[in-house]
Amino acid sequence: MTDIAARLLDGKALARSLQNEYKKRIATLEPKIGRPPGLAVLMVGENPASAVYVRNKERASSKVGIASFGQHFPVTVTQTELEVAIDLLNADDCVDGILLQLPLPSHLDATALLYRIRPEKDADGLHPVNLGRLVRSEPGLRSCTPAGVMRLLAEYDIDPAGKRALVVGRSILVGKPMALMLLEANASVAIAHSHTSASDLCDLARKADILVPAVGKAGLIGPELVKPGAVVVDVGIVRVTNPDGSHHLTGDVDFDGVSRVASAIAPVPGGVGPMTVALLLENTITSWVTSWERRRSEAHAAL
Ligand SMILES: Nc1nc(=O)c2c([nH]1)NC[C@@H]1CN(c3ccc(C(=O)N[C@@H](CCC(=O)O)C(=O)O)cc3)C=[N+]21
Ligand SMILES: [Mg+2]
């Protein structure tokens, strides 16, 4: 067998160049709007993986000129306290994006909190209004990870139209919106999930031209599950503890094995993760511009 190295879908590099564009855009518009865009990331408890993502988001925000209104709550925080925090951010004219880091401890009702975020500030695209817009193929704020995957495919001129796509996983954060976005891009989409049998997963995966695992199970996708020439976008995130107690990040895909079979592959780390952060910034900037335009046209109407 000849080893054909797959093209690397370099999310890290693309995210870096997107961030440079965001930075310029903000620098141009800030004098007109009179304030920077604002993003509030709400985190509950001490999940170390979550802490890494929150830090990445805040670092990226400050790099492009987005003001952070992050709040970190103890694991004992009550539903009411979070509702109050969300209400204040909803009403704060300096805050354009609100992200509630998931998962939450089980004593909290995450759905009720997500529904409480004003759809105009829903930087994560998880409010039912924004999910409904996605189902209808209307513009709106969209879930950052799947939107980042679509942007990454576009950057490498990979057009899903007419291709068979398989999404593995059906979470509201990734799997479902991912399937809808691939459908919108005219792929023939299948979804495998925890009730899909191993043999069905194998059949579906081996037929897929575009394979998007989003499960969080290291080694789930080996080369035997990949159609030669397929595009593989790894959305799984697994935090592995090394023998010395340190940690490293890996995805659902056996990268070395699969990169000999696939035509293109997005790695973990360095693929979808940085794109998720980039699209979060982009959603925040979109909300910032939209709310400014709305206020301007209201002011005009009042004259
Ligand atoms: N409401 C909500 N929205 C989310 O978007 C959300 C969430 N909750 N909960 C947790 C997951 C996870 N997530 C990541 C974001 C960035 C990286 C990321 O930047 N990864 C880098 C490097 C990570 C590192 O520094 O090691 C990479 O893959 O190269 C990873 C994971 C967003 N999530
Ligand atoms: Mg599932």
UniProtKB/TrEMBL annotation:
Annotated residues for binding of NADP(+): G169, R170, S171, I237
EC number: 1.5.1.5, 3.5.4.9
Keywords of this entry: Amino-acid biosynthesis, Histidine biosynthesis, Hydrolase, Methionine biosynthesis, Multifunctional enzyme, NADP, One-carbon metabolism, Oxidoreductase, Purine biosynthesis
Residue stretches making up the Tetrahydrofolate dehydrogenase/cyclohydrolase catalytic domain: 9-124
Family, similarity comment: Belongs to the tetrahydrofolate dehydrogenase/cyclohydrolase family.
Molecular function terms from GO: methenyltetrahydrofolate cyclohydrolase activity; methylenetetrahydrofolate dehydrogenase (NADP+) activity
Matches recorded under CDD domains: NAD_bind_m-THF_DH_Cyclohyd
BP terms from Gene Ontology: L-histidine biosynthetic process; methionine biosynthetic process; purine nucleotide biosynthetic process; tetrahydrofolate interconversion
Name this protein carries in UniProt: Bifunctional protein FolD
Pathway connected to this protein: One-carbon metabolism; tetrahydrofolate interconversion
InterPro entries per UniProt: Aminoacid_DH-like_N_sf, NAD(P)-bd_dom_sf, THF_DH/CycHdrlase, THF_DH/CycHdrlase_cat_dom, THF_DH/CycHdrlase_CS, THF_DH/CycHdrlase_NAD-bd_dom
Organism: Rubidibacter lacunae KORDI 51-2
Chemical reaction(s) catalysed: (6R)-5,10-methylene-5,6,7,8-tetrahydrofolate + NADP(+) = (6R)-5,10-methenyltetrahydrofolate + NADPH; (6R)-5,10-methenyltetrahydrofolate + H2O = (6R)-10-formyltetrahydrofolate + H(+)
GO cellular component, one term: cytosol
Pfam families hit by this protein: THF_DHG_CYH (PF00763), THF_DHG_CYH_C (PF02882)
Every Tetrahydrofolate dehydrogenase/cyclohydrolase NAD(P)-binding domain range: 143-288
Transmembrane segments: none
Subunit organization: Homodimer.
Function as written in the Swiss-Prot or TrEMBL entry: Catalyzes the oxidation of 5,10-methylenetetrahydrofolate to 5,10-methenyltetrahydrofolate and then the hydrolysis of 5,10-methenyltetrahydrofolate to 10-formyltetrahydrofolate.
